[in-house]
């Protein structure tokens, strides 16, 4: 710890000089950012080493969280906060004429994820370290993160996200810990001393090099590790090709083909694409991760037979499900265990979280692709499938239909969710309703067979990043009112309820929201030149653009409101600012058209002076973790309007709630549990229930065209999409129109009237300022349940059987 400003100043200036050869006056903001990041790194380096030592010496169970995505965002601010020096250093920097916020903005926003699934993994890491749990992340170091979104002429345009171009300040390359991963080739076996020995010939070998990123716990000296793997050529392979055969160009091509494995993050969210490179990424991650875990385990422990007692491997959805056959392979082919020994260990080591019931997101890989890319892995899956099916046969003799519906390999595909269920000891959904749908519907046959494996773990978010860091004024008000205990025990937020009738407190809450909204409005003005009314309702819909999330329903209601306002300029309404942000997968045509519809509405409405600024529409470019951190604190209304049953949980809903926004939402995902917490008076719920939706899917009976025929208001509204009244070519929105009128798979039209009514209720509630403030307070006070600390404690106790390891007070600068 620096004793005073002088010491801090000397260290900072010294860092600038030694890293960049510059004085304070000469240094650029980026120079200052990197200097500060190095100071943080040095500050925690001892604790990082000590944490690993403790874990090795204590011999407590270790958990590895495997995820194809970690949407960690910027780390400087969060790290300073968790170390516990943020306010002090901020003050000291200010005395040097430096704005810490500005330095934080120099950091590239690590976008190694698409949306909820990847951000959940990042929130989990923060909670694991803050709860002093020996849990680590295992992922891929994509050279290019999720594309950068620009809006050009109202359309989404994708640009590569070269986030590593100036290096990453947090990673440490560990070349000595590299491992080899094999693809292709042929596998053959021979019997030796009564055992089958497998040989893998002519495989392509890829070098997996780990880069470690520290994960710093909240003021507790725990520094865990996020290990990200990068693909490189084995040097000798490259040399052999290039020099021995004199084929330099071929050698370079070869190098690129290998490195392509960790080149880009696939931009699909809740949708899989059966691309070979994606399969390669998945196997690369699990093989590298498992090899390094087994190696480390063997260094410290006696018998590999104890593996499952000492290690849990958690797979974040099915993307890392090949961890199951890969662990089998390592245990049998490399450690010499029998099939049965390996199987006992594997199925007691792996735990699986399912994040969706959307059929288009359930992964399945063509048998022929898997067979040729991963011959040994496919063999193991085939054997697993054989044994599982015969096991099923003995339980359900003659019930072919049931067995076919549960097989791991069926119709020439490997069904990854089936593999994950069979090969793990725990399967969890991410919100109560989602787990119930898994048990009763999507995985009901599996639930019948393995009832003991299924459990629920409702998602959460880290309140440190999403409240303490993102909304410092609100955090201060809370701390001053109820003590800082909520930071360690977020459930204590409920003690805020004693201020429900306290006018001064509610006033303070109101002021903070007002300030956050003004700051946000200023930022919008500077960036887009658009003026928004800080006293209007900030109605926010931010998330991936997806048909089931129904941004289209919101857009339709905006169009209708605007039309009504044009007809009646004196329409009674609280002015509203509709704020959208989110990326569409580059190949998702309908989602991209929805963006164009929103930007078109924005262009028309924002430039129409006749409506006296009562409405504004914004589509903010490039939704990312750092943009999200600005938006949530400024939101009044949280749009959570997915078709019931489709959103497994949602986590944005929790971030809004924690920042005092009121939810307008369907009874879907975690909205249901938010509703349970805050009660009817503090949330606006509307629309079909999951039961009703699923009943329509199973039994039919919803005919959108009939609804449109019988409802003049809907017909008029939909006509506006295609009758030339919007300033776009006439056919521009025909696809949206058709998707609604012909099938309306996501019940936009069916829920529309209820949605409009719910929005009118919001308008009415907002007019009663003191009532609204109480609603905000209730949401904040009940948000403790949705801290990922609660979620991770439940995983640790209920699934991993992992215990905290106390490191002691050793955070030291040098
Ligand atoms: F399809 N989710 C996501 F299940 O963000 F794999 N990306 C994905 O690819 C999938 C799920 C997958 C989301 C869910 O849509 C969301 O409801 C949930 O809150 C989040 O995962 C975290 O559990």
Automatic annotation (TrEMBL):
PROSITE patterns reported for this sequence: PHOSPHORYLASE
Pfam families given in the database record: Phosphorylase (PF00343)
Gene Ontology MF, one: pyridoxal phosphate binding
GO biological process: glycogen catabolic process
Catalyses which reaction(s): [(1->4)-alpha-D-glucosyl](n) + phosphate = [(1->4)-alpha-D-glucosyl](n-1) + alpha-D-glucose 1-phosphate
One cellular-component annotation, GO: cytoplasm
Keywords, in A-Z order: Carbohydrate metabolism, Glycogen metabolism, Glycosyltransferase, Phosphoprotein, Pyridoxal phosphate, Transferase
SUPFAM superfamilies listed in its UniProt record: UDP-Glycosyltransferase/glycogen phosphorylase
EC number: 2.4.1.1
Residues recorded with modification N6-(pyridoxal phosphate)lysine: 655
Transferase is among the record's keywords: yes
The protein's enzyme class: transferase
Gene3D superfamilies, alphabetized: Glycogen Phosphorylase B (3.40.50.2000)
Cofactors named for this entry: pyridoxal 5'-phosphate
Family that this chain belongs to: Belongs to the glycogen phosphorylase family.
Biological role stated in the UniProt entry: Allosteric enzyme that catalyzes the rate-limiting step in glycogen catabolism, the phosphorolytic cleavage of glycogen to produce glucose-1-phosphate, and plays a central role in maintaining cellular and organismal glucose homeostasis.
Name of the featured protein: Alpha-1,4 glucan phosphorylase
